[in-house]
Amino acid sequence: MGEFEEINLRATAPQVRFGFPLFPQGTSINNPASPRTIGGGASANAPSRHQLIDTTVPLARWRLYANMWVEFFQFSFAGFSIEYQVAGVTRSNGTGDLRVRLDRTQGGAGFGISATLDTTIRLEEGTFRYDWGPLGGIGPQSWETVIDQSFAPNIDLINIALIVFNAMTGGVLPLQEIRGAQTVGPSGAVWGLFNERNNRYASDNRIRLTPSIDVHVNVLRAIPKVGTAIKVMAAVGLRVSQGPSFIFIFPITIRIIKFSTPDGTYDVVSQGNPTPGTLRLIRGPVGSTTSNFTWAETIHDHTVGFEFRFEIHSTINFLGMISLGGSTPLPFRIFPQQPLPQGGRPLSTVFGPFFTRMSSDGPTAQVGLPEVVWG
Amino acid sequence: MHNRRDFLRLLGLAAGATIVGCGSSSDSGAFSGFSSSSIPNAYQFTPVVTSGTTLPNRSSIRAQAGGDDGPPFIGAVVVNDRRHICFHANDETGKMGVYRIDYDVFGDTSDIQSVIEEGQTLSDGTVVDIISPGDLNNSDDSVFVVEDPEGRKTVQYSKGGAPFERLCSGYQSLSDEAQLYGDMHPDLCLSGSGDLMFCCPYRNADGNLEGEGLFYLPEQSASQTKRVLSREQLLPGTSSAIRTFGIFDVRPGGNYLCHGTAAPLEEDLEDGEKLTYLVRGRVGEEPETLVASPRLGDSNAVQGSVYMAPRLSDSDYGAVVQTDRDKTAFWLGGKKLLDADFNVGGSLSPRRARIISMFPPVFGPNGLVFIQVFTTQGTEILVYDGRSFSTVLASGDVINGRALGMIIFGALPHCINSHGDLVCVADFVGGESSILLGRAI
């Protein structure tokens, strides 16, 4: 029987931009991914332009014309970092116990959306001329613009959503700016949504991170020039609101499934454990086992649940008489693997399992970390 | 003197108000004043508040429209059965406010009282910046969505004219069904029994943002708030799901009417055009779809778009349904009554002018329905008694010696009371604006 104690394994000194990508490509239990720098490259998509409202309504002798566009530019990356300490015992019959403790895990995504909200609200007054021709009726008409309000602020949607949410609720969204990460478009930064859990293995025999956020705010009043226009329009009974509405939840579940010692590799199972935090090693090498070894390697699998919706809501109200607008989903991908949402329901799916490897003395744990600071 | 209408006009002038006979449409096209079983013989119109009038805070209502400070009256005005009128006005400094003026059976008016004004600090500390159109019921309860300078919206309720108290806000958990979470809609509706209908994004049972919901708050009891309609709820009779809510109307007992946008399930990302619906229901029961955009797939519903406020009576509904950028139609129940066409003109008004557009209808007493139409010659407020339309008031009519220009009637649903008295905003050709009270005689 070989005993071992306090072997530290870590993919990083938790830094989300270094660790395991959430969606490592082409992994299998025999070909797990190693830690690496996550994100930091070019933006995921070119700018994308979408129409939010295009409606004309006859109103008295006027035509109320509303046209809203959003052009957005996005950037994202996603990953998790992990460290823990293992100890335990191996037996000559190919079994053993593995205690996992001091686990510390961060996981999440960095993303940013820079958007231009291009809005035109125009009231045109018609002039009419009677056509005395054989068919009669109201003949060709001309339109004179009575009100023409246009604004096209370029904003960091996430940043302004944070500001407005804070002003509305006094609460703080679980987003942090990733300073040093690439900015998004002409304005805006990359924002990180992540979750950190400590010492979960001791109770759950797995680690589950649940980064989540949901927001519905009207951002227009927080944009100085637009805020002035909003007041001007309110004086004639026009109300305009616009802003992002999004939910983003992606629980990440991580388990250790293989454990390697200098003697060989064991399967790791969590069923029937005598105590929480202690995993069973099975199907390992048979025969005498080494004690007090200092090298170990683990293979994890992880799955990523995913619930996501990102929309721009836009409404124009005139007194209690007219209401135009609605919500427009944006084809925004946080993860490259993410299918584009269809319909109004949040995209809800589970990705994985993916496989990753961590070694106590491999070069992966000693790679220099980039200077990225949360907050 | 050609007819009784002219006679009534003269009578009104002599009495310090103006009486306008209800001229009807008829097969012969004649426009005499007439009386059916329910239509008043005439309306006596009196300007009860006029631009430039001094307000309780010693400022004055704007003298004329123009500039960035808005017109004197934006058009939102309501009247209840107690003969209390609430109206929105802008003062000379550009501040918005809501004021009240009362009148008696003889048409004599009280002093103007302030209801709520921009800059005012309410009991919960809210500083009033933007005031929604709001509503007033027969108990003198009034309610508004008030936006503070930071953009925070709260529902402020005044019971029987008492000081306003916060009823709820956009990020408040009211009940299990009403975990509000987001930017509240500016429009709301108050029933005669004090039940409130409003729209706000909400969180679902999992604690995650679901989207907009339509809520019913009975008798100021926030903990009893029910979610009436929800995002992703299937539109009855279709395989399309509700996305958003627009304007709604509610009656005592929880009967409601609501329009909004919907989309076929699993539809690709949409661009621009919103598909609209109109549903009618009763709180706690399955609603029925009355109007739907053709792509929503309800062949039993009236086909078209609804952007304008739908209106509800105890037994019927009225809606302006749009079929293209120029064409709208007034539907009462399942029957189309008027066409409007910006391009070639629609139905003829009682004064023989082609209708080009309409405002939302308003239900009055005795089954009467009022609607303001715009024609190539101006505008007319029409009343429908189930058989024909009559003109109640029109641009060009002379009130107290001044010719009417623009009229705004029906901006809010409660602009007629059970006495048949109606209120509207009228601009005179000379530039003055007034809140006009029309009393049925």
Short structural summary:
The complex is a heterodimer of chains A (375) and B (441). Chain A has 375 residues and is mostly beta strands.
Using brief descriptors, characterize the structure shown.
heterodimer, A: about 375 residues, mainly beta, 20-stranded antiparallel sheet, 20 strands, disordered C terminus, B: about 450 residues, Neuraminidase, 6-stranded antiparallel sheet, 1 helix, 36 strands, globular, disordered N terminus
Order of helices and strands of chain A: EEEEEEEEHEEHEEHEEEEEEEE
Q: What's the CATH C level of chain B?
A: Mainly Beta
| Oligomeric state of the chains in view | heterodimer
Distance between the termini of chain A: 47 Å
**Major sheet characteristics of chain A:** 20 strands, antiparallel
Q: Which regions of chain A contain 5 or more consecutive residues with pLDDT less than 50?
A: 40-44, 363-375
Measured between the Cα atoms of the first and last residue of chain B, the distance is 20 Å
What structural class do you assign from the helix and strand content of chain A?
Answer: mainly beta
- Determine the fraction of residues in helical runs of chain A and give it as a percent range: under 10%
How many β-strands of chain B, per DSSP?
Answer: 36
Number of domains of chain B: 1
Low-confidence stretches of chain B: 1-16, 25-36
Measured by DSSP, the beta-strand proportion of chain B falls in over 45%
What gross morphology of chain A would you assign? elongated
What would you note in describing this structure?
- Chain A is mainly beta and 375 residues long.
- Chain A is built from three helices and 20 strands.
- Chain A has a 20-stranded antiparallel sheet that branches.
- The two termini of chain B are 20 Å apart.
- At the A-B interface, strand 4, helix 1, strand 12, helix 3 and strand 13 of A face strand 4, strand 17, strand 19, strand 20 and strand 28 of B.
